[in-house]
Sequence to fold (153 residues):
Amino acid sequence: MKLSLAAFPVDAWDWEEGRPVLSRTMCGTHQYKCPQLARNLPYDPYAADCWALGVVLFQLLNGRYPFSAANSEKEAMVAQQTDPGHLDRVLLRRNFSPELLRLLKEGLFVEEEKSRLTARQVLKHPWVRKFSVGGGGGGGGGGVPAPGKKASP
Fold:
């Protein structure tokens, strides 16, 4: 899997208003689209990137996408994204920590953009912090657990 910073928003912030500029650009890989993008609605590009971050994390841990529908079946994918029981069904197949489940279900895969975690909040999340060097979140550890900490999802 290859991640590129080129896909992240650059001029998506209204500095005078202090808020993101809603985007109407419909782009991106189908499986990574947040519900707003999948429905072709204006969206907060920062919140959309945090949804996509959840997809990347889910995929790294499970070897598959959390929401699986063909490009022509966007309604099916949106139905999965907005079904509160969908993630329970796909996540219960693994023995993940409560912190990871909360990060995905209550933080990143949140339909309402304003309620979705920001990148800064993700870095401060307990599950992320336990995998950073020194437990400081974003400490440059590249996902390497701090000394003496067990590396398990």
Summary: Residues 45-62 form the longest helix (18 residues). The longest strand covers residues 13-14. The two ends are 19 Å apart (CA to CA). The helical segments are 35-38, 45-62, 74-82, 84-91, 98-108, 119-123, 126-129.
